[in-house]
Amino acid sequence: MQRILIIEDEYDAAKMLRKRVEDSGYEAIVVYDSDSGSRAVKSEAPDLVLLDLMLPAKGGDTVLAEMKNDPETQNIPVIIITGVIDDRVKETLFKMGVSGYLEKPYDPEELLSSIKNTLKKTEK
Questions:
Q1: What pLDDT shows up at residue 120?
Q2: Nearest of 58, 60, 108 to residue 49 by alpha carbon
Q3: Fewest CB atoms within 10 Å of the CB: 6, 62, 111, 123?
Q4: Where in the chain are the domains?
Q5: Superfamily name with CATH number, domain 3-122
Q6: Is pTM beyond 0.90 here?
């Protein structure tokens, strides 16, 4: 079963993401802050990360930068789920290597499609 790490500080949003991920046949791991997210990326070895940008402490963009600069985690695909609606931010994140970018409130079908397509591209 493919494992998806959800890094989301809003409890209700994380709960909804977990339910959607698990109902679609994936294993969900949820953490609620950037520090726990950085640790979980390494310890849990997820197949995909769903990452909120607006996290307390260092923020999702820093978690992403750490992932992409670490040979152990640089190839794990990341889909950003955020309330940040800024084309420059979006462009920067794609240059950093994200696989997808969904704006809150996101369409549940678009989320599941993004997950499925991203995982399909990274299958070995």
A1: 95
A2: 60
A3: 123
A4: 3-122
A5: Response regulator (3.40.50.2300)
A6: yes
